Amino acid sequence: MIIFSDDDEKKRILIEKLKAITVDDFNAFLHHKNITTMCSMCHRAGEQIIDETDVKDIPSKPSSNRFVTFFHHQPVIHGDSDINYYYKLTCNHCGYITTYNLSSG
Ligand SMILES: [Zn+2]
User: Fold this and answer.
1) pTM recorded for the entire structure
2) What does the pLDDT look like over 83-102, one tens digit per residue?
3) How far apart are CA 98 and CA 88, in angstroms?
4) CA of 90 to the centre of ligand 1 (A)
5) Is 55 left (phi over 0), alpha (psi -120 to 50) or beta?
6) Ligand 1 (ion): which residues have CB within 5 A?
């Protein structure tokens, strides 16, 4: 776990890394971990939606200006670390949401 302070350089670097993760990267991760695209609630296959952020207002890298949207939990007692960041998949059929925490490894 990496703990961040306010105005932390490590946090800035992490966010820059997350902004480089494409849907293809995320799908490769899921495949590598043997995670299927079947919803664990309604059992429909191939209906999982991965949110993407499109950054039109930031000078983009030549390859892509889209990355997998990442989310942030905010603890009530102030404190931030890399385990507060996560991704989510939403089932297009039933709306069930699966979240994937960032691994610090
Ligand atoms: Zn579902």
Assistant:
1) 0.81
2) 899 999 999 999 999 999 98
3) 5
4) 8
5) beta
6) 39, 41-42, 91, 93-94, 96
Ligand 1 centroid to Cα of residue 37, in Å, is 10
Q: How far is the CA of 44 from the centre of ligand 1 (A)?
A: 6
Residue 19 in contact with residue 96, Cβ under 8 Å? no
The pLDDT tens digits for 18-75 are: 999 999 999 999 999 998 889 999 999 989 999 999 877 556 555 557 899 999 988 8
User: What's the 89 CA to ligand 1 centre distance in angstroms?
Assistant: 10
Please identify which residue in the block is written with the tokens 């390859």: 63
